[in-house]
Amino acid sequence: MSFRITGLPAQPFAHLFGLSDAELARHGAIRLPTREGDAHPDRIELTDARPGESVLLVNHEHQPADTPYRSRHAVFVREHAGTPFDAVDEVPGMLSRRLLSLRAFDAAGMMVDADIADGTALEPLIERLLARPDTAYIHAHFARRGCYAALIRRA
């Protein structure tokens, strides 16, 4: 079964790009420089920030459904990130290098299934979760820190 993985749109974060640290703090965000060895996964382009780039650490509501599963968490967005990742049957490197938790939701925003997988073995789990007729979409999360990573849907 074909699947489509997408990153977050840049627009909801664009007003933060270029703000001073004090202005970011008023929005509950902070800027972090990326150094060699850091793992700052950008949720827009679904790439790891490179050394010398800055990322913004923001609180983002990734599950807005009015259910007990409504959720927000800290995410990194690369400052001045552009076009969101959007590909069919392709797992971006940022996901394939990490242990992930996949959470399947129905159309009402209720979780119907969940499991973990190494990013290199993600496709069979995606296919299994999307084979459920009640799965409307899947949220990928980084298993160790619990942060939202990407949206997965049927292609």
Automatic annotation (TrEMBL):
Q: Name one Pfam family in it.
A: DUF1203
- Top-rank taxon, per record: Bacteria
Q: What is the name listed in the Swiss-Prot or TrEMBL entry for this protein?
A: Uncharacterized protein DUF1203
